[in-house]
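Example noted here:
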Amino acid sequence: MTENIEHTDTRPHYAVDIIAFFGALIAAPLLVTVLSFFLVVPVFALILGAPVYVMVGTPLLLWHLSRRPARAGDIACLAFAADLALLILAFGLKQFAPRGTIDESIPYLLAFGLIFAPIWGATFAHLYRAFMNPLYRDAMQ
């Protein structure tokens, strides 16, 4: 005899404000760069890190924001963890791939990203909350 067990997900879900999302996604690295351009390094971080930030960060942030509110610390940790995972993957690929098939600088650029990923992530969270329509602030039932 089998029982029909209904599984209900009791975790809160959030609607993502797409306009605020893409505004914050674009503005966060630009704002960090503008505020720290005199250090020169952030300009290179923007140029080299933006493609990874958009390709990896967009789906990861959409997934995260659909399950949790935008908290700077949480998103900074998520960004750091994502960059660290890419760094480990890049070092692994570099070790096992035939010599010359993977650009030698990629793991080092990702290591450099460990500094900027959490800064851009925290800035994203602050901007997303600032841009967000109040209708999106509460969890959906």
Q: What stands out?
A: The chain has four helices and no strands. The chain has a mean pLDDT of 86. The radius of gyration is 18 Å.
